C-alpha cells in the first residue's frame, strides 16, 4: 500500500469522525462544549479508527462492494458509512435473569463511551448554566419573572413545538408550586430550565429587558410614594391652619 492509499483511508476516517460529531451535536445541541469533553474525543476517535480500518480491509482483501468499489470516492463513502452501521449493530440480544435485554456487539461497546460522554457533557453544561444563571438573575423578583420570562420566551421562539411549549410550561409551573421559600434558588432553577430552549444569548436579552421594565416600575412606584408623602404633608398643614 502506498501513502496515497493511507491518505484515502484517512479520508474515510474523517467521514466517520464527522458523522460521530454530528451525532453528538444532535444529542447535546452544542458544538463548543463538545470539544471540552474528553469522552467526546474518544467517541469520535473510535468512529475515525473503525472507518479507517474498514477502508484498509476492503482495499487489501479486495472485498467486492459492487460499483462503489470501482472508484476511490465510492470506497471512502462506503467505508465511512459502513463503519457507522457496523458500530451501531448488535450480533444478538441476551436476556438477563431480571428480564433486562442486553445487546451484544459493537453497539454495546460504543454505547459505553456515548454514556460516558453524555454524563461528562451534562456535568460541564450544568456547571456553566448554574454560574450563568446565578449572575444573570440577581435582583430579579421570582414571582414576577416566573410569569413574564416564560411569556417572552414562548412568544418569541417560533421553532418550539407544541410539545416543547407544554413541557416548558409544566416545568415552570412545578417550580412555582414548590414550597421552597428560597426565591434565589428558584430563579437559578428557572433560568437553567429556560436555557435548554433558548441558549445563553436570547435568555440574557430577555432578562435584560425584564430588568429594565422592573426598574422603571420601581421608579414609578417610588415617584408615586413620594407624591403621596408630599400630599400627606400638605393635608396636615391645611388641617393645622
Descriptive key words:
7 helices, two-stranded antiparallel sheet, elongated, mainly alpha
Unreliable stretches (pLDDT < 50, length at least 5) are none
Task: Report helical residue fraction.
Answer: over 70%
Give the overall pLDDT as a whole number.
80
User: How many domains, in number, for the residues?
Assistant: 2
Q: Biggest sheet, strands in spatial order?
A: 1-2
What spatial form do the alpha-carbon principal axes imply? Answer: elongated
Radius of gyration: 29 Å
User: Can you count the helices?
Assistant: 7
Structural features, described:
Strands 1-2 form a two-stranded antiparallel ribbon. By secondary structure, the chain is mostly helical. The mean pLDDT is 80. The relative contact order is 0.08. The chain folds into two domains: 115 residues, no CATH class; 104 residues, no CATH class. It contains seven helices and two strands; from the N terminus they run H-H-H-E-E-H-H-H-H. Helices cover 77% and strands 3% of the residues.
